[in-house]
Design a protein that fits this description.
The chain has 278 residues and is an alpha+beta fold. It contains 7 helices and 11 strands. Helix content is 26%, strand content 29%.
């Protein structure tokens, strides 16, 4: 792949040991009147509809994070949030009066992930009836942290992406090296990519636990924005699949053939189907 989006169908290389540590998808919408009128009733109805896959029910409130010289500080007391968790504790649905999100550390394939989002969205819209969608995003966080793989980064990551990490600093040691790029897609979507080397204990997202040792991060956030009335939410699943494909294209461009083999893939056994990812 000579460019991040040069191939519309980059194919699918299944990975036995993917570097993906978390996948997220979120839908944002104006505060629904149904929540204002009976938020407990709506929350219980959504929980009941999704109980087969998410049997654990939790409730909390939004926390505002402030960056201080000492790190992140949280200020609780915001809007109510409901969290439905799978029996394994590794997948969840989170929702409130103006958003719905799914999160998983058990990612298998793109179609399954998008199907989970569509099912959760259907359960919410059946009871809350959001007027329209303002934002839809899909985010993948990949992390390489095995010491042996960190030493092999110049083999695993293409040089255009690796950048300063591949340069011998001489009489010094590179501690942190982060880069960011934003792309505007022809269909109106945006892909924001962040990547780089992080020391143990450092995070770029406070919602994700830090690695204990040096790690290399690739965080991909693909999203679309709409003005009032442009998106009624009927095609959330299809739109999320398109965003996920954009993120996968970038992932595949970033990784070398050696990386695919390192993570348990077989580049010669590429399945050109579009419904899978990672």
């Amino acid at each position: 792949m000579s460019s991040p989006f040069g191939l519309a169908t980059p194919g699918h290389v299944p990975l036995e040991r993917p570097p993906l540590v978390r996948a997220l998808a979120q839908v944002r919408f104006p505060t629904s009147s149904a929540f204002v009128g009976d938020e407990d009733g709506v929350a219980k109805a959504v929980a009941a509809a999704l109980a087969a896959d998410y049997p654990i029910f939790q409730e909390s409130r939004e926390v505002s994070l402030t960056i201080t010289p000492e790190g992140f500080e949280g200020s609780p007391g915001g809007a109510r949030i409901w969290r439905l968790v799978s029996a394994s504790g590794r997948a969840s649905v989170n929702f409130g009066g103006s958003f719905l999100a799914i999160e998983t550390a058990e990612y298998t394939r793109r179609s399954e992930f998008v199907g989970r989002l569509a099912a959760a969205w259907s359960a919410l819209t059946s009871h809350a009836r959001p007027p329209f969608v303002e934002r839809l995003g899909v985010r993948y966080t990949n992390r390489i942290e095995a010491p042996a793989q960190i030493l092999r980064l110049p083999e695993l990551i293409r040089p255009e992406v690796l950048g300063v990490v591949a340069v011998d600093p001489g009489n010094a040691r590179l501690v942190t090296g982060l880069s960011e790029a934003q792309y505007e897609m022809r269909d109106g979507a945006t892909l924001q990519a962040r990547w780089g080397l992080l020391p143990g204990g450092m995070v770029v997202d406070p919602t994700l636990p830090a690695a204990t040792e040096t790690s290399w991060l690739l965080d991909l956030d693909a999203y679309r924005l709409w003005t009032p009335g442009q998106c009624d939410g009927e095609q959330v699943g299809e739109l999320a699949a398109e965003l996920a494909l954009s993120a996968y294209q970038y992932f595949r461009w970033t990784m070398t053939a050696e990386a695919l083999a390192e993570f348990g893939g077989d580049a010669d056994g590429t399945d050109a189907g579009l419904d899978q990812s990672y």
